[in-house]
Specification:
Length: about 400
């Protein structure tokens, strides 16, 4: 992957919390699909208060936790394969295949759980503490890490230029703030695709807030906003699972053929067509082609996500932790030349790297890690917000 203007690879990765992906505490029971970012009042009360009120605490949906965990494992594997691509055509093909759908899958889920975001004060607070604050904290942390690990004292901190994995947080912040707009216009998905296509042919957009990625990935968020639970159930039938196998096999074969012929940067959606040395009309065509390809493979991915609780289901609530924390190791492996050993580029070495990446990100999603880093991921920050006004009105109504 090519380096960004601040010297780092900008690779995507995942939503981490079910209630509204990265806008609510990972350990909190997720609300019903229609109650995303902030959810309804009953979803915000603690288990004791819920029992006292006679209401059962809401349960997380195992399907979405399973999907997020499986996707974060694929993300970590993709990052591990990136340095192997020059020496292994198979690694390059796997990398392209994974990158064609893993980020769109995360973004679709993010949009689905953002459907009720409506600028209500409690939802804005959760947006700030669950997305905005972690963005600032990890942008600072990554800056100092690069200065130290890469011996680059000139690397500057910038909130306007997300480095490496933090781009997804600022993108989700922007997408969620625009949610009310997409819920009132008549043709949200075509409009979002038009915006993505215009971004893909606009090299003057620049790098502030990674707006190219924000705009080019936007259609997947809008698709998620327009989905219902039965849409996910539709792709989980026996027939869909059978179809998914040859589709994935075909995608891998196409990726194997395209690996030495195609610029994989198209899948990052970080640059315009002109910046990729292509004519502007390629940006329009690639926007539509990649959207269709990504949606098909995303549907095939969902087809094989288990619906029932699995041994790894609980880890789906901590994918934001795995996402942001594994970035230090992914980058450190390049800074510290871990891939310079010849054995790493042999088949057994590539397999070992894959297993290590999957194991590391799994550990980083566990409860002990969540407790250790909760101060950065889920700061309460009650001191920073005004208290909600007391409800007005008199006594009981007859």
């Amino acid at each position: 992957m090519t380096s960004g203007p601040r010297g780092g690879q900008r690779m995507p990765l995942p939503p981490a919390r079910q209630a509204d992906d990265v806008g609510s505490p990972p350990g909190q029971a997720g609300p019903e699909p229609a109650a995303a970012a902030g959810s309804q009042q009953t979803a915000t009360v603690g288990p004791r208060r819920a029992r006292a009120a006679g209401a059962k605490p809401r349960q997380r949906d195992a399907f979405f936790d399973n999907a997020k965990f499986m996707a974060i494992v694929l993300v970590a594997m993709g990052h591990a394969w990136e340095p192997l691509r020059d020496d292994s055509r198979l690694a390059s093909a796997l990398y392209i295949t994974v990158y064609s759908f893993h980020m769109p899958a995360f973004i679709v889920i993010s949009g689905y759980f953002s459907r009720s975001f409506d600028m209500r004060p409690d939802r804005l607070r959760r947006l700030i503490t669950g997305i905005g604050v972690p963005y600032v904290i990890f942008e600072i942390a990554y800056t100092f890490f690069k200065r130290w690990a890469d011996d680059d004292p000139t690397f500057d901190f910038s909130l306007l230029d997300p480095w490496y994995l933090t781009w997804f947080l600022i993108a989700l912040f922007v997408w969620r703030m625009t949610t009310p707009l997409w819920q009132v216009i008549r043709w949200p998905i075509p409009v979002s695709l038009l915006i993505a296509a215009l971004a893909a042919v606009s090299p003057d957009i620049g790098d502030d807030l990674d707006m190219q990625r924000v705009l080019q990935f936007l259609p997947f968020f809008v698709v998620g906003l327009n989905l219902k639970r039965h849409h996910f159930d539709m792709v989980r039938g026996i027939r869909a699972r059978k179809i998914a196998i040859p589709v994935f096999a075909g995608a891998l074969l196409v990726a194997y053929w395209a690996a030495p012929r195609m610029n994989a940067a198209w899948f990052y959606r970080r640059d315009s067509a002109q910046e990729l040395a292509a004519p502007w009309w390629d940006g329009v065509m690639m926007t539509g082609a990649l959207f269709c390809c990504s949606m098909v493979l995303t549907a095939c991915f969902f087809a094989w996500v288990p619906k029932r609780r699995m041994f790894f289901t609980v880890l789906g609530a901590g994918t934001l932790y795995g996402y942001l924390l594994h970035g230090f190791l992914a980058k450190g492996s390049r800074f510290w030349d871990w891939y310079d050993h010849d054995w790493v580029h042999e088949p057994l070495g590539e397999l070992a790297v894959t297993v290590i990446a999957a194991t590391v990100v799994t550990v980083l999603c566990t409860s002990p890690v969540q407790r250790m880093f909760r101060f950065a991921m889920e700061p309460k920050m009650t001191w920073a917000f005004r208290k909600d006004p007391a409800p007005s009105g008199g006594g009981k109504r007859g």
